[in-house]
Write a structure and sequence with these properties.
alpha+beta; three-stranded antiparallel beta sheet; 10 helices
Length: 219
């Protein structure tokens, strides 16, 4: 992994273009994001190869099913409220975030990214050793989930900070049923995007339908 300076105006365009090559470019955010990433890399004893090997033993469908069982066993949760009602495809779909200042809405000064040599986008979380805090899954789970999404939706990770993953999607869901299925998978993987974001799984599905940009954030 090598950090590089990026122009916010075309950072994600370049990351998307590089996503089909072995030398990936991943947008990371600010100097503060870089410091957190570097700190986490030093704290973790796993190597990227260890994480990728561990991911091979995880079936995404099985992991997601177990998360759903845990959710349904929680008597304090109201699944109907979490599910909500699908109304129509959203006309308010956000783009990529890591090149934009969350507070001001302006382009990030001194935007940073990393160059990573890997033959598959789903292996990128292993190089960041991403995850393992609070409700954020372990790095090998991230890899297994993204391998599943890469095969099914053509999902390619193009942005990673200390607590965010963003992806470009080449085969987004095109029906309500497909969008709802994906929205549930995303909620089980990252509850914060619903619980602290769009509020219901159905609203998430409204955004995911025919959309080529995904966003995940863990508190």
């Amino acid at each position: 992994m090598k950090f590089v300076n990026l122009d916010p105006a075309d950072a994600f365009t370049k990351a998307i273009k590089a996503s089909s090559k072995d030398n990936k470019l991943v947008v990371c955010g600010t100097e503060e994001d870089k410091s957190y990433i570097e700190e986490h890399l030093l704290e973790s004893s796993q190597s990227p190869k260890d994480i990728i090997r561990a991911a091979a033993n995880i079936k995404a469908a099985t992991w997601l099913s177990k998360q759903r069982q845990l959710l349904e066993s929680d008597e304090e949760l109201n699944l109907a409220e979490i599910t909500g009602e699908f109304k129509a495809e959203s006309s308010d779909k956000q783009g990529f975030n890591l090149a934009t200042d969350f507070v001001t809405g302006e382009a990030v000064d001194n935007l940073l990214g990393v160059k990573i040599k890997t033959n598959s986008s789903w292996k990128i979380p292993a190089h960041f050793k991403f995850g393992g805090w609070n409700a954020c899954p372990e790095p090998e789970v991230h890899c297994a989930i993204w391998k599943h999404w890469q095969l099914k939706y053509g999902a390619k990770i193009v942005g990673v900070s200390n607590d965010v993953i963003e992806a470009y999607i080449t085969k987004p869901p095109q029906t309500t049923e497909e969008a709802m299925e994906l929205a549930w998978e995303q909620y089980l993987y990252c509850p914060d995007i619903v619980d602290q974001g769009v509020e219901t799984v159905s609203k998430l599905a409204e955004v995911l339908l025919n959309h080529d940009c995904w966003y995940f954030w863990w508190d």
